[in-house]
């Protein structure tokens, strides 16, 4: 590769870095392929089938999905914005701790929070039992809480683990808001309390929109929570249509409907953010807003208030999982297949992380070294996976790779008389492909952000000193963006470990990951078996939370770093590239 | 106008009275105590180098920061004092920020309307329309702040501050974000608008020329205290000390000896009044433009060290016998200097004297 670039550079005819453009184009194509396949397959479906879908499955699934989105959207906005204002507008003992503790629910995937609360709030479980004892009832027949297995339950549980997306974005916005805007409002007759409604909130609207759309994408991606809690969303319908009815055209059609909803969410986000440029334009340094000190009792009240989401979204599930896992291990030791499950998870995730990093770097570096329409388009295409639910990508890949595997198998059979089996779908390769397509946005965005901090003049100096584009990447950019790469690697790895829907659809028969193991046990109703896997996932998922709390520290934010958002990096960073 | 500006007993009641206002800012650094009285319809310039406390004083007046001690009265009403602190939104003081702080999510019209929540709809509308008209922003009413040029943003910020008819408008370095060419025009327009609306204004600036040309009354600050206040002419022509003198102009500093009400220097004897003992060292401060070329015999003379032509004026450095440093002169005359020597005289009326540091 380097040789080719050097040769073309010496000619002086073709600009150096063409290799990167080709790599970026290939990456973009690979990401786009499953979506194209989905489109083609969906059109294959007979009209009769579409009618059946239209009249039976789709209306219910669509209605439930929209209700779920509306409910989660409103609740995460309230929780996220409220907590963000709490820690940026007021000074009270424990505020700093609360600031990072509020991120912790991010470590609990939606399917784990649903699974834990199903057991915690079971009619004969700990919580309800205690309430009955306190109230003096003797049996669940006399008194029970409303069933958590409901739309309301699903909305509440999802919101309490997804609100950090809104919290992160909105807090960053509040922190970087110039104090002069607040002060100007006050000199124009707005009281300290009213400042939130009249200035801070309207200004933070773009950030709230970003956070909300991320939370909604997680909601659309979720398969476990909805299934455990009995909500038939589009995602659940795709899964059952393919797994139980083996109806690929039908699954593709629902997947396309789901994509329409995704596009609607993104469009809504863009609409709500349409004035973000203005807001960014106003941030011209200067002093930042100062927190208001409150009395000791008021401070205690604020702290308690802020801890509620942490307790529901993290402490409760984590404590439950820890005790369950402890009991299970003390009773029967580690489950027999646990270690192979862990190694399988790590192997698949590590392979996907490596591939994601390389391709993400290619996409970002092509956009830098060969700026223009082609590389920008390639970059955008490479990052569309972040918005697509895992089931959608998985169904698309089943179509593409299934066809590929069958063709190869048939050709090998007719030419060499041997059976290759299913090369992609039978190995973990399909899964690695799916992970890469889905999380490429994180590494490409992270790399682009890292690169954007390196002045263009360094590229130029390196090139005038005789270095090629590839050599410049190796000797200048990579050393300078190590941190950004490491952070992306961590985020991608953990997301792979947590990933459930695509893994369920694409894993080879003999392979289990922590997430699928948990899903299988929970589906069978053997909760305690799954607690160890769930705890392992939560422990691993805490790592990026630590990273986020560091990157999102007040000092870093105010020095002008980009607001750290795990899943939205691309949508924020695309501006650098475009 | 200048006569009524010396805060003496006969002048009308001040709009704003600042009474021993003080605030600690950090270890070894504090603002005040500051005393100041500001008359209605005056444009006051607070001037000083960065970090002198002028912006802090402005923020204390606005109520954005709280004083540690001292009192503040606006139209006779106590805003800050013993146990009293009126929140900024209750003060009726307008503020124009250095970065303008226009709300990015509101149009220009909505920005100006922002402070008029308690007004009736029609009153607010007509008020905003009038201000848009005055600031020549009517065509921009529906635009967002980022779509405006720097000068237009500045006018919008001023219009917004003026909208609720504040008793005083405070402006923190309002022209510093503008290009040099634009600055002059915006400053002119701003002052015209303040005059037309009979507004009392306090403008913070670090630019001595801006302070002298803009203010009816200039307040020079240093290290959190007021060095001198008065009309621009007073500060320029009769500075209270060396710091004030050198802040507003450049001088030739000529060493001399003080005897019997006169300062004896190598360039002559200048009458002056100094509070120093007989025979002690002192400095004569001579403006470059007070050194005039002359053809008469018997005048002082020196050899030309350098000439720099600057258009309207020419600056010449002379080596004069008895002086260690070269003497700088500025003249509008076109000189034909032969044999490198020049005779000059000094206008004694503009010479200042200060005790040697």
UniProtKB/TrEMBL annotation, chain A:
UniProtKB keywords: Cell inner membrane, Cell membrane, Membrane, Transmembrane, Transmembrane helix, Transport
Record-level GO BP terms: transmembrane transport
Any one of the GO CC terms: plasma membrane
Source organism superkingdom: Bacteria
The UniProt record lists the keyword Cell inner membrane: yes
Regions crossing the membrane: 66-88, 100-118, 150-174, 195-217, 250-268, 300-322, 342-366, 378-403, 415-435, 530-548
Topology of this chain in the membrane: Multi-pass membrane protein
PANTHER family found in the cross-reference section: FE(3+)-TRANSPORT SYSTEM PERMEASE PROTEIN FBPB 2, INNER MEMBRANE ABC TRANSPORTER PERMEASE PROTEIN YDCV
Family classification: Belongs to the binding-protein-dependent transport system permease family.
Protein name per the record: Iron ABC transporter permease
Organism placement in taxonomy: Bacteria, Pseudomonadati, Pseudomonadota, Alphaproteobacteria, Hyphomicrobiales
TrEMBL record, chain B:
Gene3D superfamilies on file: P-loop containing nucleotide triphosphate hydrolases
Signal peptide positions (record): none
Highest taxon of source: Bacteria
Keyword annotations: ATP-binding, Cell inner membrane, Cell membrane, Ion transport, Iron, Iron transport, Membrane, Nucleotide-binding, Translocase, Transport
GO CC annotation terms, alphabetical: membrane
One GO term of the biological process aspect: quaternary ammonium group transport
Pfam families tied to this protein: ABC_tran
Database matches in CDD domains: ABC_Carb_Solutes_like
SMART domains, alphabetized: AAA (SM00382)
One Gene Ontology molecular-function label: ATP hydrolysis activity
Location of the ABC transporter domain: 16-248
Family: Belongs to the ABC transporter superfamily.
Protein's name in the database: Iron(III) transport system ATP-binding protein
Lineage: Bacteria, Pseudomonadati, Pseudomonadota, Alphaproteobacteria, Hyphomicrobiales
